[in-house]
Amino acid sequence: MAFIKALIPGFLLTWIVSGILGSNGSRGGMLAIEHTFIQGHDFYWSWALFLAATGLAWALFWMMDS
Fold this sequence. Notes:
- With 66 residues, the chain is of the alpha+beta class.
- It has helices spanning 2-23, 47-65; strands at residues 34-38, 41-45.
- β1 (34-38) and β2 form a beta hairpin.
- The protein is elongated.
């Protein structure tokens, strides 16, 4: 259950950080921020940042459940 709860903060952190860095023209280095188009909506996204943020949130929620 901790993993499901971790998806929301992982998504939000990725969306906000990628949006700020990507709109300033940065690629984010190892974050590999890319400009993405899905069904007419464009936004910036980084899978590396999403996995790291979700993993961190998962660990925090797992420690709180124990």
